[in-house]
Amino acid sequence: MAHRVLRIGVLGGGSWGTTVANLVAARAPTILWARDAAVAREIAERHSNERYLPGARLSKALRATADIGEAVSNADVLVIGVPSQGMRQTAIEVRRHIRPWVPVISLAKGFETDTGLRMTQVIGQELPGHPLGVLTGPNLAGEILAGMAAASVLAMEDEVIVAELQRLFRGGLFRVYTNTDLTGSELGGALKNVFAIAAGMGDGLGAGFNTRSALLTRSIAEMTRLGVALGGRPETFTGLTGLGDLITTCTSPLSRNRTVGFELGKGRSLQDIIAGMNQVAEGVKSSGPIYQAAKALGIEVPIITEVYRVVHEGRSPSSAFRGLLRRGAGSEAEPG
Ligand SMILES: NC(=O)C1=CN([C@@H]2O[C@H](COP(=O)(O)OP(=O)(O)OC[C@H]3O[C@@H](n4cnc5c(N)ncnc54)[C@H](O)[C@@H]3O)[C@@H](O)[C@H]2O)C=CC1
Ligand SMILES: O=C(CO)COP(=O)(O)O
């Protein structure tokens, strides 16, 4: 059956927004909005985005603009890839331009600090009535742009719409699965960033492979416990959006969240690390609302708690790690 040509608007000219726009541009007319006019011009005219994706060549089919209305008003599908703390403001700006019923797909992996909401909850408040989804999984932008094989998940509650949109994102060696557990898929992508900070801290402190494996395995148990309490399905957390993304982010030197943890473990201050990065590490800000949500629900989250203490209360990474190792170990099925 012939498919109708869908026009795609992508918001966010950082590393992931640009990468996804570049992928989608291979199979649908796509326009990318970057709020920085120089970035938009560079993508449109020179087909590169040196600040966020140094050395990468982008598709000539990808258009770019610094005018959000131009990217949104003709879009049949809208993809939003700005960092989580800019999501609400972006959705508010979208409201005057978006057509009714246009599906909105979030790429962001974080929680709003003031409200603790997931990104599709924030978008749903500002853009009611639009079908919502997330594209999430173990997907480091640099590897995807280099054409390396990867798998991802498009998660939406409506199984008809998700099957229709799946084809937009898949192609080449980028394999896209569907999932109707929007909540669980979105939670996995946001929660793993905090565990990646913990894994990076361990590596920075010189922990061994056994320690890392123990941390990752206890992280997936903790992610599942909290994620299920927050409304996700248990099996989702052992899939690509949970375990898959946890492995990539906790082990790759390309991960910004792991890098923050690694540098903390090496003894640098958080302020210094953040000041030296020109990209977002969502887990730093997300650790606050995640810790608060777990506390409010009475869920034991020892790893999240130690990251929260390091990031928000100035605890040293070595005492955080010692704290985790000294906890009494009970049954493997129990928290801790
Ligand atoms: N880079 C990656 O490999 C992946 C990133 N993600 C997620 O994608 C989201 C975006 O991250 P990246 O593109 O990596 O970040 P980035 O740090 O590379 O770029 C962020 C971009 O957003 C723009 N921006 C920041 N605040 C904004 C606002 N209020 N309004 C409009 N634009 C704003 C910046 O100017 C910049 O262009 C994050 O939630 C991240 O966790 C998800 C999967 C992979
Ligand atoms: O989400 C990602 C990989 O799936 C990117 O991780 P970082 O934000 O830590 O770089």
Automatic annotation (TrEMBL):
<dbReference type="InterPro" id="IPR006109">
    <property type="entry name" value="G3P_DH_NAD-dep_C"/>
</dbReference>
<dbReference type="InterPro" id="IPR006168">
    <property type="entry name" value="G3P_DH_NAD-dep"/>
</dbReference>
<feature type="binding site">
    <location>
        <position position="245"/>
    </location>
    <ligand>
        <name>sn-glycerol 3-phosphate</name>
    </ligand>
</feature>
<keyword id="KW-0443">Lipid metabolism</keyword>
<feature type="binding site">
    <location>
        <position position="109"/>
    </location>
    <ligand>
        <name>NADPH</name>
    </ligand>
</feature>
<feature type="binding site">
    <location>
        <position position="192"/>
    </location>
    <ligand>
        <name>sn-glycerol 3-phosphate</name>
    </ligand>
</feature>
<feature type="binding site">
    <location>
        <position position="256"/>
    </location>
    <ligand>
        <name>NADPH</name>
    </ligand>
</feature>
<keyword id="KW-0594">Phospholipid biosynthesis</keyword>
<feature type="active site" description="Proton acceptor">
    <location>
        <position position="192"/>
    </location>
</feature>
<feature type="binding site">
    <location>
        <position position="15"/>
    </location>
    <ligand>
        <name>NADPH</name>
    </ligand>
</feature>
<feature type="domain" description="Glycerol-3-phosphate dehydrogenase NAD-dependent N-terminal">
    <location>
        <begin position="8"/>
        <end position="159"/>
    </location>
</feature>
<feature type="domain" description="Glycerol-3-phosphate dehydrogenase NAD-dependent C-terminal">
    <location>
        <begin position="181"/>
        <end position="321"/>
    </location>
</feature>
<feature type="binding site">
    <location>
        <position position="257"/>
    </location>
    <ligand>
        <name>sn-glycerol 3-phosphate</name>
    </ligand>
</feature>
<keyword id="KW-0444">Lipid biosynthesis</keyword>
<feature type="binding site">
    <location>
        <position position="137"/>
    </location>
    <ligand>
        <name>sn-glycerol 3-phosphate</name>
    </ligand>
</feature>
<comment type="pathway">
    <text>Membrane lipid metabolism; glycerophospholipid metabolism.</text>
</comment>
<comment type="similarity">
    <text>Belongs to the NAD-dependent glycerol-3-phosphate dehydrogenase family.</text>
</comment>
<feature type="binding site">
    <location>
        <position position="109"/>
    </location>
    <ligand>
        <name>sn-glycerol 3-phosphate</name>
    </ligand>
</feature>
<comment type="function">
    <text>Catalyzes the reduction of the glycolytic intermediate dihydroxyacetone phosphate (DHAP) to sn-glycerol 3-phosphate (G3P), the key precursor for phospholipid synthesis.</text>
</comment>
<dbReference type="InterPro" id="IPR008927">
    <property type="entry name" value="6-PGluconate_DH-like_C_sf"/>
</dbReference>
<feature type="binding site">
    <location>
        <position position="256"/>
    </location>
    <ligand>
        <name>sn-glycerol 3-phosphate</name>
    </ligand>
</feature>
<keyword id="KW-0547">Nucleotide-binding</keyword>
<feature type="binding site">
    <location>
        <position position="35"/>
    </location>
    <ligand>
        <name>NADPH</name>
    </ligand>
</feature>
<keyword id="KW-0963">Cytoplasm</keyword>
<feature type="binding site">
    <location>
        <position position="282"/>
    </location>
    <ligand>
        <name>NADPH</name>
    </ligand>
</feature>
<feature type="binding site">
    <location>
        <position position="52"/>
    </location>
    <ligand>
        <name>NADPH</name>
    </ligand>
</feature>
<keyword id="KW-0520">NAD</keyword>
<feature type="binding site">
    <location>
        <position position="280"/>
    </location>
    <ligand>
        <name>NADPH</name>
    </ligand>
</feature>
<dbReference type="GO" id="GO:0047952">
    <property type="term" value="F:glycerol-3-phosphate dehydrogenase [NAD(P)+] activity"/>
</dbReference>
<feature type="binding site">
    <location>
        <position position="255"/>
    </location>
    <ligand>
        <name>sn-glycerol 3-phosphate</name>
    </ligand>
</feature>
<feature type="binding site">
    <location>
        <position position="16"/>
    </location>
    <ligand>
        <name>NADPH</name>
    </ligand>
</feature>
<dbReference type="Pfam" id="PF01210">
    <property type="entry name" value="NAD_Gly3P_dh_N"/>
</dbReference>
<dbReference type="InterPro" id="IPR013328">
    <property type="entry name" value="6PGD_dom2"/>
</dbReference>
<protein>
    <recommendedName>
        <fullName>Glycerol-3-phosphate dehydrogenase [NAD(P)+]</fullName>
        <ecNumber>1.1.1.94</ecNumber>
    </recommendedName>
</protein>
<keyword id="KW-1208">Phospholipid metabolism</keyword>
<keyword id="KW-0521">NADP</keyword>
<dbReference type="Pfam" id="PF07479">
    <property type="entry name" value="NAD_Gly3P_dh_C"/>
</dbReference>
<feature type="binding site">
    <location>
        <position position="141"/>
    </location>
    <ligand>
        <name>NADPH</name>
    </ligand>
</feature>
<dbReference type="InterPro" id="IPR036291">
    <property type="entry name" value="NAD(P)-bd_dom_sf"/>
</dbReference>
<keyword id="KW-0560">Oxidoreductase</keyword>
<dbReference type="InterPro" id="IPR011128">
    <property type="entry name" value="G3P_DH_NAD-dep_N"/>
</dbReference>
